[in-house]
């Protein structure tokens, strides 16, 4: 077997390269369509070399999801925008700049509805955490804060799917601006 020509990268940089390659592939094919060989090839690694950095295919998926969450937190700022309406608008503006990441999330969220999917527990916990945070922000804004939180998530998810299906014909930010008038009055 021929040895691959590849540049030696610091571990953190190599891990970032692996996560970026896996993110693109999962967004395109879903988790079940993800091949560790394809990720390794994209990074100039062997599969054992890839596994050295991520442990397993499931470990790679967790790394991708954690990276996505950390990047969103970083992009929203510390502290994030105050107020429910402002936070939602900032999230939509951010998502409008990253269709590949939104597609990744949509594909994995749908796939992980199956209880045996490796991200099932992650998405279940994430959904509850998002609803809890939005419900807290909705207190004082709505007489039914939990209902408003669920409506916000459903609206964002639905608009993002429409946008992903027809990016040229759907302005995500404009659609959210119209929807927030209905949601927040």
What are the SSEs and their pairings?
Elements lengths: L10 H19 L6 H8 L3 H8 L2 H20 L7 H13 L2 H13 L8 H19 L6 H21 L6 H13 L1
Architecture overview:
The chain has two domains: 1-77, Tetracycline Repressor, domain 2, CATH 1.10.357.10; 79-185, no CATH class. Helices cover 72% and strands 0% of the residues. The chain has helices at residues 11-29, 36-43, 47-54, 57-76, 84-96, 99-111, 120-138, 145-165, 172-184. The chain is elongated, with a radius of gyration of 19 Å.
Look at the structure and give the mean pLDDT: 91
Helix content range: over 70%
How many discrete structural domains?
2
Structural class: mainly alpha
Beta-strand segment tally: 0
Please, how many helices? 9
Radius of gyration from the CA trace? 19 Å
Strand content: under 5%
Helices and strands, in N-to-C order?
HHHHHHHHH
Q: What general outline do the C-alpha atoms trace?
A: elongated
The poorly predicted ranges are: none
Termini gap: 65 Å
**Sheet having the most strands:** none
Outline of this structure?
The chain is an all-alpha fold and 185 residues long. Helix 1 crosses helix 4 and helix 6 crosses helix 8. The protein folds into two domains: 77 residues, Tetracycline Repressor, domain 2 (Orthogonal Bundle); 107 residues, no CATH class.
Task: For this entry, give a set of tags.
single chain, 185 residues, mainly alpha, elongated, transcription
